[in-house]
Protein backbone atom coordinates (compact mmCIF):
# COMPACT_ATOMS: atom_id res chain seq x y z
CA UNK A 1 0.00 0.00 0.00
CA UNK A 2 1.19 3.59 -0.45
CA UNK A 3 3.33 4.73 2.46
CA UNK A 4 1.64 8.19 2.69
CA UNK A 5 -1.71 6.47 3.32
CA UNK A 6 -0.31 4.26 6.09
CA UNK A 7 1.54 7.19 7.66
CA UNK A 8 -1.60 9.36 7.59
CA UNK A 9 -3.64 6.66 9.29
CA UNK A 10 -0.93 6.24 11.95
CA UNK A 11 -0.94 9.99 12.54
CA UNK A 12 -4.72 10.22 12.84
CA UNK A 13 -5.09 7.06 14.94
CA UNK A 14 -2.30 7.55 17.49
CA UNK A 15 -0.43 10.78 16.78
CA UNK A 16 2.49 8.48 15.80
CA UNK A 17 2.71 7.14 19.36
CA UNK A 18 3.63 3.41 19.27
CA UNK A 19 2.48 2.95 22.89
CA UNK A 20 -1.00 4.31 22.23
CA UNK A 21 -3.78 2.20 23.75
CA UNK A 22 -7.56 2.58 23.50
CA UNK A 23 -9.98 0.60 25.58
CA UNK A 24 -13.10 -1.08 24.20
CA UNK A 25 -12.87 0.25 20.66
CA UNK A 26 -14.17 -3.00 19.25
CA UNK A 27 -16.30 -4.17 22.14
CA UNK A 28 -15.53 -5.78 25.47
CA UNK A 29 -11.93 -7.02 25.71
CA UNK A 30 -11.11 -5.87 22.18
CA UNK A 31 -8.72 -3.00 22.71
CA UNK A 32 -6.81 -1.04 20.06
CA UNK A 33 -3.01 -1.02 20.21
CA UNK A 34 -0.07 0.90 18.81
CA UNK A 35 0.62 3.22 15.93
CA UNK A 36 -2.35 2.23 13.80
CA UNK A 37 -4.68 1.37 16.69
CA UNK A 38 -5.12 -2.22 15.54
CA UNK A 39 -7.86 -4.08 17.40
CA UNK A 40 -6.77 -7.30 19.12
CA UNK A 41 -9.27 -9.30 17.02
CA UNK A 42 -8.06 -7.73 13.75
CA UNK A 43 -4.45 -8.27 14.77
CA UNK A 44 -5.05 -11.94 15.54
CA UNK A 45 -6.95 -12.42 12.27
CA UNK A 46 -4.25 -10.80 10.12
CA UNK A 47 -1.40 -12.51 11.99
CA UNK A 48 -3.09 -15.90 11.59
CA UNK A 49 -3.77 -15.31 7.89
CA UNK A 50 -0.63 -13.46 6.74
CA UNK A 51 2.13 -13.70 9.37
CA UNK A 52 1.77 -17.26 10.61
CA UNK A 53 5.05 -17.52 12.51
CA UNK A 54 4.40 -14.27 14.30
CA UNK A 55 0.88 -15.46 15.13
CA UNK A 56 2.27 -18.61 16.76
CA UNK A 57 4.50 -16.51 19.03
CA UNK A 58 1.65 -14.08 19.74
CA UNK A 59 -0.92 -16.76 20.47
CA UNK A 60 1.27 -18.82 22.84
CA UNK A 61 1.14 -16.03 25.40
CA UNK A 62 -1.70 -15.74 27.95
CA UNK A 63 -4.29 -13.15 26.84
CA UNK A 64 -3.35 -10.69 29.57
CA UNK A 65 0.32 -10.63 28.55
CA UNK A 66 -0.02 -10.82 24.77
CA UNK A 67 0.71 -7.14 24.37
CA UNK A 68 4.16 -7.80 25.93
CA UNK A 69 4.98 -10.82 23.78
CA UNK A 70 7.21 -10.96 20.75
CA UNK A 71 5.13 -9.86 17.77
CA UNK A 72 3.27 -7.51 20.07
CA UNK A 73 0.77 -5.11 18.60
CA UNK A 74 2.70 -2.39 20.45
CA UNK A 75 5.76 -3.23 18.32
CA UNK A 76 5.79 -0.59 15.54
CA UNK A 77 6.99 -3.09 12.93
CA UNK A 78 4.32 -5.68 13.74
CA UNK A 79 1.60 -3.07 14.11
CA UNK A 80 2.36 -1.37 10.80
CA UNK A 81 2.69 -4.74 9.01
CA UNK A 82 -0.69 -5.88 10.33
CA UNK A 83 -2.26 -2.54 9.45
CA UNK A 84 -0.73 -2.49 5.96
CA UNK A 85 -1.99 -5.99 5.19
CA UNK A 86 -5.45 -5.15 6.50
CA UNK A 87 -5.51 -1.90 4.49
CA UNK A 88 -4.42 -3.81 1.39
CA UNK A 89 -7.39 -6.14 1.82
CA UNK A 90 -9.72 -3.15 2.23
CA UNK A 91 -8.24 -1.40 -0.83
CA UNK A 92 -8.88 -4.54 -2.87
CA UNK A 93 -12.42 -4.84 -1.50
CA UNK A 94 -13.20 -1.19 -2.37
CA UNK A 95 -11.21 -1.22 -5.62
CA UNK A 96 -8.68 1.37 -4.49
CA UNK A 97 -11.16 3.95 -3.20
CA UNK A 98 -9.30 5.76 -0.39
CA UNK A 99 -12.34 7.20 1.38
CA UNK A 100 -14.27 3.93 1.47
CA UNK A 101 -11.14 2.13 2.68
CA UNK A 102 -10.63 4.68 5.47
CA UNK A 103 -14.28 4.52 6.49
CA UNK A 104 -14.14 0.72 6.71
CA UNK A 105 -10.81 0.84 8.58
CA UNK A 106 -12.21 3.24 11.16
CA UNK A 107 -15.68 1.81 11.67
CA UNK A 108 -14.96 -1.84 10.97
CA UNK A 109 -15.49 -3.49 7.61
CA UNK A 110 -18.54 -5.48 8.75
CA UNK A 111 -20.26 -2.41 10.24
CA UNK A 112 -19.37 -0.37 7.18
CA UNK A 113 -20.71 -2.98 4.78
CA UNK A 114 -23.90 -3.47 6.80
CA UNK A 115 -24.51 0.26 7.19
CA UNK A 116 -24.04 0.95 3.49
CA UNK A 117 -26.35 -1.78 2.20
CA UNK A 118 -29.18 0.68 2.79
CA UNK A 119 -27.46 3.76 1.33
CA UNK A 120 -26.94 5.11 -2.14
CA UNK A 121 -23.51 4.65 -3.69
CA UNK A 122 -22.93 8.43 -3.67
CA UNK A 123 -22.52 8.62 0.11
CA UNK A 124 -20.48 5.57 1.03
CA UNK A 125 -18.07 7.17 3.52
CA UNK A 126 -20.66 7.73 6.25
CA UNK A 127 -21.87 5.17 8.73
CA UNK A 128 -25.23 5.16 10.41
CA UNK A 129 -25.71 7.48 13.38
CA UNK A 130 -25.56 4.47 15.72
CA UNK A 131 -21.91 3.97 14.79
CA UNK A 132 -19.02 6.43 14.93
CA UNK A 133 -19.31 9.72 13.09
CA UNK A 134 -17.06 8.27 10.48
CA UNK A 135 -17.02 11.17 8.03
CA UNK A 136 -14.90 13.21 10.45
CA UNK A 137 -12.26 10.46 10.44
CA UNK A 138 -12.26 10.16 6.65
CA UNK A 139 -11.92 13.95 6.28
CA UNK A 140 -9.10 14.06 8.83
CA UNK A 141 -7.10 11.37 7.01
CA UNK A 142 -7.76 13.19 3.73
CA UNK A 143 -6.42 16.47 5.25
CA UNK A 144 -3.27 14.73 6.49
CA UNK A 145 -2.76 13.11 3.07
CA UNK A 146 -3.11 16.46 1.33
CA UNK A 147 -5.48 17.68 -1.32
CA UNK A 148 -3.29 16.53 -4.19
CA UNK A 149 -3.51 12.90 -3.14
CA UNK A 150 -5.80 10.90 -5.46
CA UNK A 151 -9.16 9.67 -4.23
CA UNK A 152 -8.56 6.30 -5.87
CA UNK A 153 -5.46 4.17 -6.18
CA UNK A 154 -5.43 2.08 -9.31
CA UNK A 155 -4.09 -1.44 -9.37
CA UNK A 156 -6.31 -2.76 -6.56
CA UNK A 157 -9.06 -5.02 -7.79
CA UNK A 158 -11.26 -7.68 -6.24
CA UNK A 159 -10.99 -9.84 -9.34
CA UNK A 160 -8.42 -12.57 -9.85
CA UNK A 161 -7.09 -10.76 -12.91
CA UNK A 162 -4.71 -7.96 -11.94
CA UNK A 163 -5.42 -4.61 -13.54
CA UNK A 164 -1.73 -3.82 -13.91
CA UNK A 165 1.03 -5.99 -15.30
CA UNK A 166 4.73 -5.28 -15.31
CA UNK A 167 7.14 -6.52 -17.91
CA UNK A 168 10.78 -7.26 -17.17
CA UNK A 169 11.85 -4.24 -19.20
CA UNK A 170 10.05 -1.88 -16.75
CA UNK A 171 7.14 -1.02 -19.04
Name the structural class: mainly alpha
**Which sequence of SSEs, written as H and E, runs from N to C?**
HEEEHHHHHH
How many runs of DSSP E, i.e. beta strands?
Answer: 3
Subunit arrangement of the protein = single chain
Indicate the overall shape.
globular
Separation, N- and C-terminal Cα atoms: 20 Å
Helix content range of the residues, please? 40-55%
Rounded Rg: 17 Å
How are the secondary structure elements laid out?
Elements: H1 3-14, E1 21-22, E2 32-33, E3 38-39, H2 40-50, H3 52-59, H4 76-93, H5 98-107, H6 109-116, H7 134-145
Antiparallel strand pairs: 1-2, 2-3
Helix pairs in contact: 1-7, 2-3, 2-4, 4-5, 5-6, 5-7
Properties at a glance:
disordered C terminus; three-stranded antiparallel β-sheet; mainly alpha
Explain how this protein is built.
A hairpin with a 4-residue loop joins strand 2 (32-33) and strand 3. With 171 residues, this protein is mostly helical. It has helices at 3-14, 40-50, 52-59, 76-93, 98-107, 109-116, 134-145, and strands at 21-22, 32-33, 38-39. Helix 1 packs across helix 7, helix 2 (40-50) packs across helix 3 (52-59) and helix 5 crosses helix 6. The chain has a 3-stranded antiparallel sheet. The longest helix is centred in the middle third of the chain and has 18 residues, at 76-93. The chain is built from 7 helices and 3 strands; from the N terminus they run αβββαααααα.
Summarize the structure.
This protein has 171 residues and is mainly alpha-helical.
